[in-house]
Amino acid sequence: MTAEVDPSVLVGDRALLGRSSTADRVADILRARIAEGYLPPGSKLSEDTIGNALGVSRNTLREAFRLLTHERLLVHELNRGVFVRILTVQDVTDIYRVRRLIECAAVRNLGAPPYDLTQAEAAVAEGEKAAEEGAWRELGTANIHFHHAVVALTHSKRLDELMRGVLAELRLVFHAMDNPRSFHEPYLGRNREILSALKAADRVRAELLLADYLDGAEKQLLEKYSEFMAP
Q: Tens of pLDDT along 129-174?
């Protein structure tokens, strides 16, 4: 499962760093690339390759690796290097436990309408465009963007940061789905339903739809991921 990272994916990200490049910003870029599916589980992260692609020092990159290792996205193997982490079946269960606690509570505690659904609407539109083009990895990314947007409605920086890490971990599980279309496509319609409930300011319905969504996704992922991880 070990694979080398394609540096061309990261070269374009160098401009995002600007003059004040920091380990936090490098970690943000790598986390985003994991969440977008460009860095699959088991990928080896070469200091030279990534450092050159982003134009950052080895010390800065090592600090970024340390931050992402703390977030359980990377793992350091003695005498072998740094790799994108391969999650366990138990990790999947825990991710969905955390998602329920964050996402359902976020909807439940939205307060009085109207809600700024700009990001959520953009994520659904992004998913619809990806589906029309048959870009199933991008549809998975749009799905992640939608759920991040739902939590962003709380205007909580702490929840936003926590959700980014959780959803990046989740993306590592998506790689086990051998038919990404059959997995991602049905959830686009469910995102539309949740969005419609939020537009109607029906928080109760939105939370019920979201809870049912998470239950179904967890069951489907666990079944497939258990097969994928079986010896």
A: 999 999 998 999 999 999 999 999 999 999 999 999 999 999 999 9
Q: Are 220 and 180 in contact (CB under 8 A)?
A: no
Q: Give 202-230 pLDDT, tens digit per residue.
A: 999 999 999 999 999 999 999 999 998 88
- Asked whether the whole model's pTM tops 0.90, one would answer no
Residue of 68, 216, 92, 210 whose CA lies nearest to 149: 210
- Report the sign of the C-alpha dihedral through residues 32, 38, 43, 49, in that order: negative
What whole-number distance in Å separates Cα of residue 164 and Cα of residue 152?
A: 10
Q: What is the DSSP string of the chain?
A: --EE--THHHHTTHHHH-TT--HHHHHHHHHHHHHTTSS-TTEE--HHHHHHHHT--HHHHHHHHHHHHHTTSEEEETTTEEEEPPPPHHHHHHHHHHHIIIIIHHHHT--SSP---HHHHHHHHHHHHHHHHT-HHHHHHHHHHHHHHHHHTT--HHHHHHHHHHHHHHHHHHTT-S-HHHHHHHHHHHHHHHHHHHHTT-HHHHHHHHHHHHHHHHHHHHHHHHHHH--
Q: What's the CA gap between 96 and 218, in Å, rounded? A: 6
